[in-house]
Design a protein that fits this description.
With 507 residues, this protein is of the alpha/beta class. It folds into three domains: 6-184 and 229-410, Alkaline Phosphatase, subunit A, CATH 3.40.720; 185-228, no CATH class; 420-505, Arylsulfatase, C-terminal domain, CATH 3.30.1120. The protein is built from eleven helices and 22 strands. It has a ten-stranded mixed sheet. A four-stranded antiparallel sheet has the order 17-18-19-22, with helices on one face. A two-stranded parallel ribbon has the order 3-16. Strand 6 (169-171) and strand 7 (174-175) form a beta hairpin. Helix 10 packs antiparallel against helix 11. It is globular, with a radius of gyration of 22 Å.
């Protein structure tokens, strides 16, 4: 397993002058993490949707053009983000149902644990999707283990996603607003007797399902999975953005006396896209565009709170997305029909679920008022690098992982990023080294028909020069056989795939 010696990396960087030595001078850290936001979805990355509040941060910070999530889907990306470990190293780090057990070990090193060890208060607000409990969850009692057991002092989350049951808020392990006389039952295999479903009761729906979302109906929206009871605790979809924004604002106000780490994991623009009435029709691109504008407004309101509490100049903000964009992801919501000339993934090929660039290359920037100079950086950087980098920022050490100390890069002091990176989609992996991307031979359909996205599977090896061919139109594997074999050998070494290494050496 390839690891980075975090002690040597930290000593090699002159980090001490960046912050004062005392713990009281440690900056607050806010990680704003959107869900399914594509590389070209916001205007500072060339998108047609107006996102002035996000742009104001990106254009006054370090905006990365080669910033990556670890995976092209949600759960594995979040796993890598919080642990600094490639998700393909954990067989359970794949898209989880709402009833999945926690996939981060309670003994495991995490980003919030590291920060808490040096005096930070820690919180996660909004989406979780990393599992809860140990396999069988009684939603009517305290749900444990969960976010609180892996480093977060405070948590207020969705169990999984907005389109999966249970459709309730969970605060510090307890379902919010639960009536004990109406207990919740959840099952992902079979329905409860007498409960309507999207498949059998279309007359009860206000949002039509396209694929996969035809089980229990909550608020007129068909979901994934079956649920019975807990009706008083059900969220109102259109109010979700306001609910979590208020939680984030209140957290800041109540914890401003000590340094805090807030993981604000917003749910937009994941399906079902249910903008508050204030934003309906504002984008002209249907609900998907509207919820991106809603998310931008939430970011603006949150920044106002930091300003009002005199915290903005002592707060490092990191903004990114868990994976690339998808349009039709299970519901008929005009995301395709009203797209117009907006390109959610910019010039990149593929999208969510894909090994092509649009799967994992995402919006990624840092902002720190008065500390970071506005700039665009083409340094290669990944979300798993936050663990080592933030440890260096706060002056502590972490056990070696796949994370690398790129603090100087995050702060705009250097443009020397990673040399290489393993990317993942649908449990398959690809390898970026320098300007080159290698996609191994994978059998299977080239296009995921349900969402109409090229996922990068091919019986042939693929090799792209991303500097010259960002749209991945020219496969150069045949033209550069020696380079192909060299990259394959490095890639398989990282993966620990020694059988393939032997095959290359026999050629």
């Amino acid at each position: 397993m390839k690891i980075v010696n975090s002690i040597v990396s930290m000593l090699a960087l002159p980090i001490v002058p960046l912050i004062a030595a005392s713990s009281t001078a440690k900056p607050n850290i806010v990680l704003i993490y959107l869900d399914d936001l594509g590389y070209g979805d916001i205007s500072c990355y060339g998108g047609k949707i107006k996102t002035p509040n996000i742009d104001a941060l990106a254009n006054n910070g370090v905006r990365f053009t080669n910033g990556y999530a670890t995976s092209a889907t949600s759960t594995p990306s979040r796993y890598g983000l919080l642990t600094g470990v490639y998700p393909w190293r954990n067989k359970d780090a794949k898209i989880l149902p709402g009833t999945a057990p926690l996939i981060i070990g309670t003994e495991q090193q995490t980003l919030p644990k590291m920060l808490r060890s040096v005096g930070y208060q820690t919180a996660v607000i909004s989406k979780w999707h990393l599992g809860l409990g140990s396999g069988i969850v009684d939603w009517n009692k305290k749900i444990t283990p969960g976010p609180n057991e892996v480093g977060f002092d405070y948590s207020c989350v969705l169990a999984a996603t907005q389109d999966r049951v249970p459709t309730v808020y969970i605060e510090n392990g307890h379902v919010v607003g639960l009536d004990p006389n109406d207990p919740i039952q959840v099952d992902y295999d079979k329905n409860f007797e007498g409960e309507p479903t999207g498949k059998l009761n279309p007359e009860l729906l206000r949002m039509k399902w396209h694929h996969g979302h035809n089980s229990s109906i909550v608020n007129g929206i068909p979901r994934i999975g079956y649920v019975k009871g807990g009706k008083n605790a059900n969220w109102v979809d259109e109010e979700m953005a306001d609910y979590f924004l208020l939680k984030a604002q209140n957290y800041v106000k109540e914890h401003k006396s000590q340094p805090f780490f807030l993981y604000y994991a917003m749910h937009q623009p994941h399906v079902p896209r249910t903008p508050h009435p204030r934003f309906v029709g504002k984008s002209g691109l249907g609900p998907r565009g509207d919820v991106i504008m809603e998310a931008d407004w939430c970011v603006g309101e949150f920044i106002k709170t930091l300003e009002q509490e005199n915290l903005l100049e002592n707060t490092l903000i990191v903004f990114s997305s868990d994976n690339g964009a998808v349009l039709n992801d299970g519901y008929y919501d005009d995301a395709v029909e009203k797209l117009g000339n907006h390109t959610p993934n910019g010039l990149l090929r593929g999208g969510k679920y894909s090994l092509y660039e649009a799967g994992c290359r995402v919006p990624f920037f840092t902002y720190w008022k008065g500390k970071i100079k506005p700039q665009v950086s083409d340094a290669l950087i990944c979300q798993i690098d936050l663990l080592e980098s933030l440890a260096a920022l706060v002056g502590t050490d972490v056990k070696p992982t796949d994370s690398q100390n790129l603090l100087k890069v995050l702060l705009g002091k250097s443009k020397k990023g990673r040399e290489s990176l393993v990317l993942e989609a649908n449990t398959k992996t690809a390898f970026r080294k320098g300007d080159w991307l290698l996609i191994p031979s994978y059998p299977g359909d080239a296009v995921l028909e349900e969402v109409n996205i090229e996922i990068g599977f091919s019986p042939e090896y693929q090799l792209y020069n991303l500097k010259k061919d960002i749209g991945q139109k020219n496969n150069l594997a045949i033209k550069h056989p020696r380079l192909l074999n060299k990259l394959k050998k490095v890639f398989y070494t990282v993966r620990g795939d020694y059988k393939n290494i032997e095959k290359i050496e026999l050629k």
